[in-house]
Amino acid sequence: MLRLTRVRRRCRGFSLIEVVVVLAIIAMLTLVAAPWFLKISQHNTVKSAAREVSIALAAARMRAVKRNLASQVLITNASGTQSFNRIETFEMTNPTPTKVGEVDLTASVTFPTGSLLQVFFGPDGRATNVTASTGLPVIVRGVVGNSVTNDVNVIVYPNGHIQYVPPPAGWR
Fold first, then answer.
1. 15-165, superfamily in CATH?
2. Confidence label for 8 from pLDDT (cuts 50, 70 and 90)
3. In the sheet that 98-105 helps form, which strands lie side by side, from edge to edge?
4. What share of the chain is helix, strand, coil (3-state, %, to 5)?
5. What's residue 52's pLDDT?
6. Could you tell me the end-to-end alpha-carbon distance of the chain, in angstroms, rounded to an integer?
7. Rg (the chain; Cα; Å)
8. What is the pLDDT of residues 72-129, one digit of tens each?
9. Separation CA 44–CA 61 (nearest Å)
10. What's the predicted TM-score (pTM) here?
11. Could you tell me the residue ranges of all domains in the chain?
């Protein structure tokens, strides 16, 4: 009988000290990993917004060539009246342009001064308002409100080529 009670005592489960130690280890790992996950999330937000810009530009260029009509892409920063950034695509029809597309981007990114916020594509697919042979950048800056901001560039060339420039390896 004595042997049976010893066996049952060993099989009852974990002691309170063992559970507390495991929970403390999990809490420490969570505290270490949380800032890393936040940083990854912020980087992905900026990169995703830059990719959306490059996709909208490419779609407007393809539409201009396909329809043999000039098109315009207009990027508007978030303001007091709208809580998001907006990318609008217009087909330059006479007498007034026709809106053919609209994409809303998160307000946690911004397009700073010096960034190309309006692109015109001619019927041949060339960017008519870009004259620099090195192209002009659409700068996507994020994350708004963070102490460190990162920029991702989408460069538009005069021939209509659109290049998403991935962030450098040492991105903060």
1. minor pseudopilin epsh domain (3.55.40.10)
2. low
3. 98-105, 85-91, 71-76, 118-121
4. 35, 25, 40
5. 94
6. 66
7. 27
8. 999 999 887 788 999 999 999 888 999 999 999 988 899 988 888 999 999 999 999 9
9. 26
10. 0.80
11. 15-165
